[in-house]
């Protein structure tokens, strides 16, 4: 069976319990190999909250597109909470995948069984596990929010990873000399009327890396362009 692997780490790495991208990929590949499957593509969402829906991520829409187009038979993840740590998001993603007649596999556990009207406990148990993951995420967010508020009261930058073109130095958000040219280039392309996919091709052709991950995604560029438009307004 041909599968795609989906990896995700959140903006707050404390929420990932040691499931870094490399660990997730190794787990997915080992499970696929042991079970006679082949991973054709690895998709990575780095710095993406598990509460984000499909369209609010960079890589997950590409996973769905592959499944809907029949380019893969299913998706493998290292743990179910890599899909989502909000129950309603998890269920929406599973429904979308199953609607494509594709399967979802968890490394080390096997296929996530589809809902069966004759076995309501199957859905109940899965949703209970999803609710536990959501509660865990909310408790982590609460602790982090309290820590950031305390840091902000002391005058420091305390709101996660800085956006492209910036870095946090001694609690202050300042321009990043390595990334500022790429941010300026995105602004030039946007002003010239380039589409998001045209920007992806240009940035990759020019060897300009994204802030996180190893490839550009239209959705991440859309957010960068929106920030540029807001700053110019």
Assembly state here?
single chain
Structural class per helix/strand content?
A: alpha/beta
Query: What is the 3D shape?
Result: globular
Domain count, please report it.
2
Q: Report the CATH topology name of the largest domain.
A: Rossmann fold
Task: Write out the strand line-up for the largest beta sheet, numbering strands in chain order.
Answer: 2-1-3-4-5
Q: Can you put this structure into words, describing what you see?
A:
- It is a single chain.
- By secondary structure, the protein is an alpha/beta fold.
- It has 2 domains: 2-111, Resolvase, N-terminal catalytic domain (Rossmann fold), CATH 3.40.50; 166-232, no CATH class.
- It has 7 helices and 7 strands.
- It has helices at residues 21-34, 60-68, 87-99, 120-153, 180-191, 196-205, 218-232, and strands at 2-9, 38-46, 74-77, 103-106, 110-111, 166-169, 172-175.
- The strands form 2 sheets. The chain has a 5-stranded mixed β-sheet with strand order 2-1-3-4-5, sandwiched between helices. A two-stranded antiparallel sheet has the order 6-7.
- Helix 3 (87-99) links the parallel strand 3 and strand 4 (103-106).
- Helix 5 crosses helix 7 (218-232) and helix 6 crosses helix 7 (218-232).
- The mean pLDDT is 82.
């Amino acid at each position: 069976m041909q599968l795609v692997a989906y990896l995700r780490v959140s903006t707050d790495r404390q929420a990932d319990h040691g499931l870094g991208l490399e660990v997730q990929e190794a787990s997915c590949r080992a499970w696929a190999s042991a079970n006679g499957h082949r991973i054709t593509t690895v998709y990575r969402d780095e710095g993406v909250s598990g509460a984000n829906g499909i369209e609010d991520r960079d890589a997950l829409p590409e996973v769905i597109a592959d499944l809907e187009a029949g380019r893969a038979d299913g998706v493998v993840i290292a743990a179910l909470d890599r899909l989502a740590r909000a129950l309603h998001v998890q269920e929406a993603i599973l429904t979308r995948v199953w609607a494509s007649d594709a399967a979802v596999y968890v490394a080390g556990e096997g296929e996530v069984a589809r809902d069966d009207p004759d076995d309501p406990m199957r859905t109940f148990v899965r949703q209970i596990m999803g609710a536990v993951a959501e509660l865990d995420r909310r408790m982590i967010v609460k602790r982090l929010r309290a820590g950031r508020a305390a840091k902000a009261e002391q005058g420091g930058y305390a709101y996660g990873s800085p956006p492209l073109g910036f870095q946090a130095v001694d609690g202050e958000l300042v321009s990043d000399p390595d990334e500022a040219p790429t941010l300026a280039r995105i602004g030039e392309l946007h002003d010239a009327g380039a589409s998001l996919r045209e920007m992806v091709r240009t940035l990759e052709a020019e060897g300009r890396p994204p802030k996180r991950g190893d490839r550009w995604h239209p959705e991440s560029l859309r957010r960068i362009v929106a920030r540029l438009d807001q700053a110019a307004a």
